[in-house]
Amino acid sequence: MTVALASFVRTSGDVSSLDLVIGGARCGGCLAKIENGLRSQPDVTEARMNLSTARLHVAWHGAADRADGFAQNLQDMGFSAGPYIPDIADAADRAQSRKLLLAMAAAAFGLMNVMILSIAVWSGGSEMSAATQSLLHWLSAAIALPIAAFSGRPFFASAWQALRAKTTNMDVPISLAIILACGLSLWETWQGQEHTYFDAALMLVFLLLVGRVLDARLRARTGLAARQLAALQVHNARRITDDNRVETVPTTELAPGDIVVVASGERIPADGVVISGESRLDAALVTGETALQKVGPGDALYSGTINHGAPLTLEIHKASADSFLADITAMVEAGQQTQARYVRLADRAARAYVPVVHSLALLTFVGWLIAGGTPRTAIINAIAVLIITCPCALGLAVPAVQVVAVGRLFAKGVLIRSGDALERLATVRHVVFDKTGTLTQGRIRADVSAIPAPDLALISALSRHSTHPASVALHEFETAASALEVEEVSGQGLRGQVSGHAVRLGQARFVGGVSFDRPGLWARIDAQDPLQIILADPIRGEAQETVNALRAANLTLSIVSGDAAETVENVGDALGIDQVTARVEPAEKLTHISALQNRGIPVLMVGDGLNDAPALAHADASAALVSGTEISRAASDIVLQGDTLAGLPFAIQVARAAKRRVVENFALAIGYNMLAVPLAIFGYVTPLIAALAMSASSLIVTLNALRMRRVGDYEGPSHPGQNERIKKGKAAL
User: Which pLDDT value is given to residue 721?
Assistant: First the structure.
């Protein structure tokens, strides 16, 4: 190892973690081998790889110096490993893409020239002399052999790395097919035979490189979402030291309790709370709202949001690796590589590929010899079997669909958190909604239309001395008055002196002059008649449209809430949801979902609060708003950005479409092999035709996956400038 990985290890208590970039991992079989190999190591608690970005996350109990040992384990498996540094990883990806493009261009150049010579041989027929034919074959060899050696390096290097590690991968039979085709053609040329297969060898190399280039583009497109989020992360922060100096440090060094200064126009480096300063914040990353929000002492701020206005001083509550933006980025990356049932099926097929293909090729060779065929014929048919059985179509069947689906959802403000979320989301038949903060805005609003403006100013001044939700609802009303001698009676209300008036705010019994059984919030100024303040939690503006869309998708709906029956029933009536359950504890929500599941009904739970977490984790699929609690986001399969439910019907639509595309792709890949393999075994397919057929199957599967880009016409919320960045990214790709 040339780089000591211990310096890149993050520690939290006795848990160490490290992100590595892996070289040589090409398929789901490689991914399973890497993850399972590391998980089998002592004290390793997590090994999760994103095949699209080649990023491996490893966590373990113990010292940081074990990192080099994990890298050695990966090398023993046949994979290279180095520290994952986003900028360096992106540069390496671009360099690799350039190498693939150069190799593909060289293969295309050689193929065109060899095909011209081959056409001359075919068209010459019996009229061409043996000497001329031999000359053309030798010219083909002079072109094909060096180009096959140059352009085939990605396959040869991968195969050699696997063989050195005493294992195999899909590049082993591919390399064998290229070498055998070139070797047989050279032998045929030496023997003065009529036919050679230099064109087939170069065709195979070229078409496989086309697949690798497309795969690289798909990987780049998949990683685009994560890179866009990474671009929002701050690399440096200005931290205040114990002796009141300001030092610039990498955000990775920030720890809870640190004090940082954020100037106007800068992004918040990590999650924290304002301790001094008042400003306006662009929090569209969290809320989807483009309007700036007022922030001041005591307000919580999330990483990635932008300070517009005066400088702010923050106390950091979370390290950058555990921040809101890091959490969202991790969700995107987790969604790009799934381990769903279909993926596991494809992985098992890919792992069985090498022994099955080698056995088929060997049996084809032996079978033709037993049947009386010449060694030359037996070798040609065995090579055709090696080429035509390349599992590119099967390997692309699931990832190609998921890459497009996850990218489509991200562009519309829907983040996939768990690996098999798309598959499970496609099966749901019933949706359970929490009420407060999910179907409603979760912010109490006060109706003060019946209260005179002078009285409202006095009441608002008193309310500012409490953080109770009912008092907070009155903070928005302007007042120039100040409250003195304020006393808050727990569970009752506030009282104090405001501009020479005795003002009370709270329950009816507390303010006096009102029947004790009158509910709601009341205020009283001096000895005047009490004033009633109507409080309500308004229904979300998009809730009705979301409910209608879900019902149109043949889903049944219900509301399960801990609120009072009358409040929950009012929301149900307003939205047209008949199945309503009120006054339930968190454990009872879980029981409600279990009852539906026991009846064979897959359930989608939608919530946002701490009390929803058990139900979110227990449901077949779950969704949370990005503005919900951290625990609710962590327990959910998908996260809806922009603080809106509007993306939920679209997510279900995309999930169902993705399931159909995966099944179609499996059918196409299996059908291709069932038709093509027998033809190759019985000698009806030449190596050239085999290369064309293999490429065509992969292209069909990829084009079928790209149909996902046209699913739905929903135009939902997105990050500021996100759609523009995605358009630029697509143009660059």
Answer: 40
